[in-house]
Task: inverse folding
């Protein structure tokens, strides 16, 4: 599962990415500082189940602190897009193609309006960020439309002549965008398309199909960056009213990055997503650092409850995608062979069953599945048993 970071140039995308991953990347105040995509590992946060068992877990991947488990997710930060990206402007086709494997998108916008449509710095408040919300959706929709239309007439005629099912043929052709047959089937029904005559689908119908599939395969949350600037707050409230169907989260990627780096340097104790931090030793801080931390606490954490970065990732994975975190464990033993408690935690798609989890752990577990055990309630369950957030599951398989 991959989280894609997208937006126009110079809005803080790379800062958001670095704040999420602490990857060593270039951050610069000019358009197209990023050309090749940055890839790294970020983390989503859940309440860890270890306390329910009176133990401290020992994650193999990710980490756990103060009862919060941080589970790794793959992230990709693509170069800034410009209007006309789907036509190749600003190397847009290349940058859009970098997003093919993303499961969910984080659209970073400059909520304070300090950058114009080209990503060039301007006076705060002199650009309307609503334009960016609209432009990016148009670019993504037109990108999908371009892919669908490529060779469409020949493709559609072949489907009809060879009496193929359009949902199967089109699902296979668009699988690189994570489109499935079921999605095509649902789109045909909702859009009232004639599945027997795809060669007669007109331009408007193809566009509606593109929009439908883009929303299904690339759900999006909007990170309203630069919320530390006063004009941003009123802009965000206006955006929520103007675009009622979207998810907007105020954030300050710069503040999150500062807190993460201060924590890494041992200057503060900070749990990502929380509304406060603890200074370990004030004598180790210079005046500039003290003022910066005071500003973040007063103008970001106290006002908004967090920097927003962690909330964006958690909302993207758990709310938009509906993923759940499941731990493998045993009713009689939570430790692995090395004595590590609950070392693993896996993100599973919505609707996952005990059998799905068995296959996630190992193909042989799935093939030789006998039953599963819900460790928390010490009950045996079958392969169809639906999993829920925070379950600890033991898989029993034959040889």
Result:
């Amino acid at each position: 599962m991959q989280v894609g970071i997208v937006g126009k140039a110079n809005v803080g995308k790379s800062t958001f990415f670095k704040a999420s991953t602490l990857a060593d990347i270039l951050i610069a105040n000019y358009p197209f500082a990023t050309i090749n995509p940055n890839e790294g590992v970020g983390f989503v946060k859940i309440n860890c189940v270890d306390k329910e068992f009176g133990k401290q877990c020992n994650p193999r991947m990710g980490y756990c602190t103060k009862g919060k488990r941080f589970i790794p997710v793959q992230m990709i930060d693509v170069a800034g897009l410009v209007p006309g990206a789907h036509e190749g402007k600003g190397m847009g086709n290349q940058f859009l193609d970098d997003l093919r494997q993303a499961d969910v998108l984080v659209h970073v916008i400059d909520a304070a309006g300090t950058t114009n449509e080209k990503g060039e710095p301007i006076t705060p408040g002199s650009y309307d960020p609503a334009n960016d919300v609209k432009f990016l959706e148009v670019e993504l929709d037109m990108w999908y439309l371009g892919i669908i239309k490529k060779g469409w007439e020949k493709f559609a005629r072949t489907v009809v002549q060879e009496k193929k099912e359009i949902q199967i043929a089109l699902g296979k052709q668009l699988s690189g965008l994570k489109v499935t047959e079921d999605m095509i089937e649902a789109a045909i029904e909702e859009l009232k398309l004639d599945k027997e005559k795809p060669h007669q689908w007109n331009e408007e119908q193809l566009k509606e199909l593109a929009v439908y599939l883009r929303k299904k395969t690339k759900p999006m949350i909007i990170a309203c960056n630069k919320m530390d600037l006063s004009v941003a707050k009123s802009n965000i409230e206006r955006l929520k009213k103007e675009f009622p169907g979207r998810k907007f989260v105020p954030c300050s990627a710069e503040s999150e990055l500062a807190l993460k780096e201060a924590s890494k340097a041992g200057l503060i104790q900070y749990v990502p997503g929380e509304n406060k931090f603890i200074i370990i030793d004030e004598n180790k801080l210079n005046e500039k650092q003290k003022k910066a931390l005071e500003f973040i606490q007063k103008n970001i954490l106290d006002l908004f409850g967090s920097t927003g970065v962690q909330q964006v990732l958690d909302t993207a994975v758990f709310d938009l995608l509906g993923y759940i975190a499941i731990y493998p464990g045993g009713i009689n033993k939570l430790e692995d062979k090395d004595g590590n408690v609950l070392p693993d935690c896996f993100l599973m798609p919505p609707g996952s069953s005990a059998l799905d989890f068995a296959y996630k752990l190992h193909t042989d577990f799935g093939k030789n599945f006998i039953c599963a055990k819900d460790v928390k309630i010490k009950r045996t369950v079958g392969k169809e048993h639906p999993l829920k957030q925070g379950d600890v599951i033991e898989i029993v398989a034959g040889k």
About this structure: Residues 25-34 have pLDDT under 50 and may be disordered. The chain is about 35% helix and 20% strand. The radius of gyration is 23 Å.
